[in-house]
Amino acid sequence: MAALGLLRKHTPTLLRDGVRTSRTASAILTAPARWTSSSSSVNADEISHFNALASTWWDAHGSSRILHLMNPLRHDFIRSCRASSPVSSTSETKLRYLDVGCGGGIFAESAARLLDTSTVTAIDPSPMILAVAKRHAQKDPTLMSTQKLTYLNASIETLPIPTSPIEQFDIVSLFEVIEHVDQPAAFLDRCGAFVKPGGWLVMSTIARTWTSWFTTNLVAEDILGVVPKGTHDWRKYINEDELRGHFRGKSEWGAPRVVGVVYVPGLGWKEVSGSEKIGNYFFGVQRIA
Amino acid sequence: MDGLIRSRTAAAYVCRSCTRRSQRRLQRDYSSAAPRPDTYDVVCVGGGPAGLSLLTALRANPVTSHLRIALVEAQDLSKTKSWKLPPNKFSNRCSSLTPSSALFLDKIGAWHHLERSRVQGYQEMQVWDGVSGARIEFDWAADSSPAAGTTIAYMTENLNLTSGLLKRLAELGQVSVFDNAKVEKISYGEETEALDLSQWPVVHLAGGKQLHARLLVGADGANSPVRSFAGIEAQGWDYGRHGVVATLEMEGEGWGGDQAKIAYQRFLPTGPVAMLPLPGNYSTLVWSTTPENAALLKSLSAKDFLATVNAAFRLSPTDLEFMHTQGSGQTDEYAWRMEHTPVDHQAIPQTAIGVQEGTIASFPLKMRHADTYIGERVALIGDAAHTIHPLAGQGLNQGQGDVQSLSKTIEYAVTHGQDIGVRMSLEPYLSERYAANHLLLGVCDKIHKLYSVGSGPLVPLRSLGLNAVNAMGPLKTFIMNQAAGNGIKVF
Ligand SMILES: Cc1cc2nc3c(=O)[nH]c(=O)nc-3n(C[C@H](O)[C@H](O)[C@H](O)COP(=O)(O)OP(=O)(O)OC[C@H]3O[C@@H](n4cnc5c(N)ncnc54)[C@H](O)[C@@H]3O)c2cc1C
Fold first, then answer.
1. Domains in chain A, please, with CATH?
2. Taking a contact as any Cβ pair under 8 Å apart, which residues of chain A between 90 and 149 contact chain B?
3. Whole-prediction pTM value?
4. Which residues of A fall within a CB distance of 8 Å from B34?
């Protein structure tokens, strides 16, 4: 309590920000960008921060551990999304993935290993991180020989928009990405164009609340040190009702599915219903037209 | 990347022509002419009960059946597979399989490949203290369990089990088997421009064959070469005891007949002696005793051996000790001493009247526990991970528990796209099994120590019968829970 009181005294602007956005749910998504860098969705400072992290990306026992621990839940979430709908993007069993902001390739590699995957296209704007991802994939001869996994040094803006469903993807994933993006609304619309009708846009991010500021910025980065410092800019966090608001009323998208997850030290990530309001959560929407 | 940096720094210390030569080697590796390394998802060293069960479990599960699997075993597995004995002959290496082990073997489709007429369930256990006579009964009535009549465990010849597993594996197919093959060494793979196998264990077989392992499983028994390769220490001690085994012919099929077989164990100051039922009139003996006593027992004539075995369940420890000082003549000594020893026949095994030729053997007993069961691209199962005193008949069952857990862990990793060899994928196996195994190792170790102290402060306590009840209590609970938890008859 004492700590929280102290924080409040020193962060009046943050508090105001929070109040404003919670009143107008999707304000942050539709407001003109506060930080812009060229035509890309990606913030230049963010890229250099992740460049600096590149070497530790695959250290599953160090600073990237909680990211690695979360990865299996991503697959569980995608499966639950696909199982929830009678409509599918494909009559075949094999899926095409587009992983946007793939980083060191934790998700991309795992998706490419699944037997029901046909291809994974994984993109990231940071050449350094992509070099780490490519080198890491060489540790797995099966990944290399099946050639399902393709890494591209690109942002979603530089990828040409598909012109037919064959070029589109069954799953477009944005894991821990949206909170690092300058213009989330435009970014989501752009990503949506890559989803095949019947396919899913899936993401995970963190809600912008006092709890998430406390747990991700203060506890995870500063106190526990389980997340590298400077990874999160709390002001860019997006709440699930804001994401819902973005897709509401758009006829090509179905009703979103949201699952909150909580990291319990010693136990790992656990699904906790309702926790999407305060911390990390998965968000999935199916493209229905 | 690491390797590239390493070779660049190395180049600073070597002459230029050498650098050029090594560059040329790099290019050759990269070109298609270089032989592609023979890579497997799982290389299992050791085709004993643990290793064969793991491979069967992986092959029988549709989720993991696509994995590329190799088995390396020093012995000739075709002999094991075609193992056959006449119905009145039994191997001396028998283990009691708990119902949960049997159910697992059934689930992976192996149980019905065992010669079932050679498997004997038992429904009751009688355990008592040789000094005080204090007795603890393991039966369902005493436990007033709803599952009364349930089998506590199934006595099975180890060869019946491994032979059945091999038949099931052959039915499933697609395992590269290298038997009669000794592991010469284990090293790490190489890093080239195209592929980085520097963290992949490579198993080298005599004759030059090399197997690259995404996951190297050590199912290679108590002296596990895989464990040494992984640099995993094992803690423990030798008991200074040998386990003497033999296949015995009894005067009948047991006091309870064919339907209610009983296992017996008596704690002597030198260690426990157990008589475990086999089909018909047969039983298997496991007698933990000093190496000197073991040597004597092996040197005796069949008649004298039988007299000493019968004495072990009937005479006082002092009488028994005396019989071990005789080079021969135990038969007469036993007959004379029995005239003065009242016994409740129903409470002890029937008299052993014959010993099958060539079945008397002995094994040194030890307790070992590896510091961990996993490393990067390495997992240990069965006796490679832990060796337990045979007094509770749990060694092989612990291995089955390991196999269940590791195969489940691998299945989870596969369905979530994880590399099944990396330590993080293997962590659930370690956390599920380590504490459970440690507890059981500790319980059996303590019991052995309580009883094998010949003199000193523990003895008066023991002769009051306190320890018999106290020490066996938790083990009884464990064994009965294992059996009752399943409640299902596999036969
Ligand atoms: C006297 C006695 C009685 C027992 N009674 C019971 C009982 O009643 N119940 C019970 O559950 N357990 C019992 N056990 C324990 C049980 O026998 C073991 O726990 C079990 O056999 C272990 O199986 P495993 O597959 O782990 O190892 P092992 O059976 O030891 O198999 C290891 C295999 O690896 C192979 N190998 C080793 N090194 C190499 C190499 N370098 N290259 C290639 N191959 C190699 C070996 O040839 C062997 O086939 C008893 C043990 C003893 C000594």
1. 2-30+40-286 (3.40.50.150)
2. 109-115, 131-132, 135, 138-142, 144
3. 0.84
4. none
